[in-house]
Description:
alpha+beta; Beta-Lactamase; Helix Hairpins; 4 domains; five-stranded antiparallel β-sheet; 13 helices; elongated
Amino acid sequence: MTSAWSFALARLLALLGVALLGGLIFGRPLVWVIAVLAGYLCLQLINLYRLDRWLRHRNFIEPPDLGGAWADVVTQVVRLHRRKRFHKQRLIQLFRELRRSTAAMPDGVIILNASREIMWFNRTAGRLLDLRRKVDIGLRIDNLIRAPDFIRYLEQGDFSEPVYITWPVGSELNLSIQMIPYGGGQQMMLVRDVTRQTKLEAMRKDFVANASHELRSPLTVISGYLDSLSEDGALDPSWAGPIGEMRRQAERMNAIVHDLLELSKLESGDKEAGEGLVDVAGMLALLRKEVLALPSHPKDVVLMLDSTAKLLGEEAEIHSAFSNLVANAVKYTPPEGMIEIRWWTDDAGGHLAVRDTGIGIAAEHIPRLTERFYRADPGRARQHGGSGLGLAIVKHALQRHGGRLEIESEEGKGSTFTCHFPRRRLAESEAWPLRAAADR
């Protein structure tokens, strides 16, 4: 108990003592006690009224000059009021700084509530999306931006990657939009102008495609002459080695041109692949036969089909992705090694895993394996005639089917490349318990 409350209690007891003493001297002590208590209560009511009046109008009048415990109460209220005002001013200052900083950002920022209604946006977002502050605040963002890709992006709910749209539809303005959820079901929407990057990417794709087409004809001619020279019996034997090396390099260049054209086709196609019926089991069985028909291949090539499920997609792209993974496994697995190809389905979707017992890949190389022309071991890759584009083709083919590539490897122990397809890409989902082994 504080000294003020101790003093108030002592004063009350003193008053009661005086009242009781007066009552004993002059008679009727109960009346004296009641009168003193009534006076004390009136005094407290007056102090309470003054405190209430000050609390209601504290911005215009000074705190009341009260004594005892009431002074302590007034002091505590004044302290709380000053602290509240300090934090409020600090919050307002921080909010103003936030608004100034977001207004200066080159990217658009939009704050949405749990119902995806616009609560606030900066000037860049207003300029890029043609939003008006007095009109569009409070409206749903999907009612203002009716781009099909953006609506699909919101419906799917996967905001790990941005969505790219042309806005307004038919214009040359290309925007990148990404939703960032945060507390209370709210979302922050980041909008970026990527028109320049999109044009540069289109120029790069056109250049690669055109250059690849232009290189195909002269390479065909060179390869034809080299084939003729290698079969010419009158050719000096000393030229056999150089011509053989030139043929190998010409074949490697042809492979690079082929992969470049295929990669350009994947990049320039629609964002979503079609939904043709792809017989995965038949395709994998054929790939296994092709591996076994090679002059040199791993000793064991095991095919495990745990499901009859078919895929909905582009058969040529799926075949390209699967064949690249199998071809890589064959290249980097010794003859005494083993390759396992497994297809199965579960609640998450369809999965293809290509596991080998080859040389493996160091951990620092795995994140960059799907980059164009990236090689974990350049010397060994060139020795096997790889183009450096196979895994890039796999990644783009899977992305067009809503899938992803997972890579697990340990140097010296082999690698496992797994393709994951979403459930919506499965034509059927029943499991097939029978497994086809290597001897089938």
